[in-house]
Amino acid sequence: MSGRAGGLVSTSLASVREVSCAASGSDAALYCAAIEETFPELAIETIEAEGEGWDSVAWTVNGQYVFRFPKRDDVVPWLEREIALLPELAPTLPLPVPRFSHVCIRASIWPRPFVGYRRLAGQPLLDPPMLARAWPHLADQLGSFLAALHAFPVARAAALGIPCHDPPAWRRAHEHLWRQIQAAVCPLLTALERRMVAAFFDRFLALLEVADFRPVLVHGDLNEEHALMDAEASRIVGVIDFGDMRLADAAVDFGQLPELFSRRMLQSYRSHQGPAEDDETFLARARCYGRLEAFRGVLMGRELGDRALLSSSLATLRRQLSEP
Question: Mind listing the pLDDT tens digit for each residue in 259-281?
Answer without folding.
Answer: 889 999 999 999 987 665 666 78
